[in-house]
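Hey,
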Amino acid sequence: MTSSRKTLLVSACLLGTPCRFDGTHHRCAGLEGLDREYNVVQVCPETLGGLRSPRPPAELRGGDGTQVLAGRAQVITATGQDVTQAFMAGARQVLATAQTTGAVGTILKARSPSCGKGRIYDGSFTGCLVAGDGVTTALLLQNGIPVWTEDEWLERKA
C-alpha cells in the first residue's frame, strides 16, 4: 500500500535533534504533529557535510549561498577555518534527498548559514543580519524546490 502523504524535508534541529553548532537543538513546537500530514524526512546539511556537533559557529563571507555555490564567497568559522566544502557537500546531499523522495518542499532553520532564507548573518559574528540565503536554501531554490523557514511555515498555516 502506498502512502498518499507528500514528503517534506525538515531541519533536524527544528524537530529536536541536537545537531546545531553549539550541540543543542532549536525545537519548534509549531511543527509538532507535522508527521500526521506529511512523510517527514529530517535533514541537517552541516552534519551531512561531515561537520560534528558541537563545532565552531560559521557564517558566510563575501556573499550569500548563491555566491558560495558560484565560488565567489566562503563559509568561515569563528576560528577562521574554511568549511565551504562541507557546507556544499551537505547542500548537495539535501538536494539529492529532496529529489529522490519527491519532496514537495523543505522547512529549514531561519538565519542559518546553510538553511537561512531571506536573511542570514553577515559574516562578522556580531549578530548582524543581511539579505540573502544560506547555501542549502540557495541550491534547493535553484533546483525549483520550495523552501520555508519555520516562521514562514507557521505564518502560512495560521
